[in-house]
Amino acid sequence: MGAKIVTGEAGYVLEDVPHLSDxxxxxxxxxxxxxxxxxxxxxxxxxxDDDDTITQKIVVHKNxxxxxxxxxxxxxxxxxxxxxxxxxxxxxxxxxxxxxxxVIREIVCGLNYMYGVKRVLGIDGGYRGFYAKxxxxxxxxxxxxxxxxxxxILGTSRGGHDTSKIVxxxxxxxxxxxxxxxxxxxxxxxSVIFEEVKRRGLKVAVAGIPKTIDNDIPIIDKSFGFDTAVxxxxxxxNAAHVESESFENCIGxxxxxxxxxxxxxxxxxxxxxxxxxxxxxxxxxxxxxxxGLFEYIEKRLKxxxxxxxxxAEGAGQELLSESIHSMTKEDASxxxxxxxxxxxxxxxxxxxxxxxxxxxxxxxxxxxxxxxxAIPSNASDNVYSTLxxxxxxxxxxxxxxxxxxxxxxxxxxxxxxxxITEKMNKVVITDRMWARLLSSTNQPSFLSVKDVIxxxxxxxxxxxxxxxxxxxxxxxxxxxxxxxx
Length: 485
Known about the structure:
By secondary structure, this protein is of the alpha/beta class. The chain has 16 helices and 17 strands.
């Protein structure tokens, strides 16, 4: 998809999202029904101005340009669909995540209560459900209590993306608004669907709601379900802590989600304060020798008699046996199939101390992955999921398409698909947030001075550039959500 860029004074850049009017000329517009909605009648300014934008970076220097902006989400004065003509559909793809049902509920209720839309379909079982399964009729009554349940009432799957068949189904059913909830692979699929819709000249708005429990989607402050995942991960860490304190030389080992990004492990560790060592995909570590993991474990056990280790699922993959074979296999969504680092590292620790004959250890391994994924979202994520859903509805009704919604520096924004899928959000281990974790756990960084210097070689001098996106994201998350500083 070609970028839709608008420039302005002082280095202002707006990375705009597509609009139906870009490829369908002379589309009629209609007054927004919200102007007669009692819920909005008391709001002084209930429509977003066309030139309202949100800056991607909020930390600037006096000599830096205004930088990249995104279009602000919210209701517009004119809409491009009449309520009676809207036939919407919702699909969920990929793994489970707390908040999925809340997003589904609020899209249905938002369309109905705010815009008077009565026809909303649920696509059963992910992308392939467009052409392989029956649809489900969704009404405010049928979705009323679903936010209290985990999972997704629509079912989900990985893969199944046949673009032509999906758009054929959209066209045949007369669907003109498509709401797609899923991670970066799903959003890439949504982008392809949008391109095909545009190629056929269809009046169909395609809106994405980014879903990743790992918080690895760039640009946005955080993904829905992340707060809930961190909160639930703490319960597993607490259980490991209780176990480890109750036995001599006991290690509580908790494996948390984080295929490529260690945000859940990092934030759960910081929130818990009971963790002695946190291992994530972004931070290499080694087992044997001075400064290695085994040496640190022995030191902590001698000092405290117990310890807790948190490991993200993608950590240490290069150390695992047969890693060359495992790294070449992928699931239906294109994600690498990883070996179980938790079981592997548990065995490595047991074998190491069994060989030494100096110290008898107990090891308790906890893997709460599916318990965390399957729970309902907490209060914070329920509110966030509601805002995302309503923002998506406002955008689609206003004629925007080929966009995803997300919180950027605390404001709901419309982001073009390519910005969401062009790279992955990762923990920056030479940044402040990881330093805070290291000072909290008192663990070694497992990096030599040479590693740090090499890692920083690619970074521009701080006096010439604002903090990079990941750094800003880390600090924004802390300032807004956790108040660690």
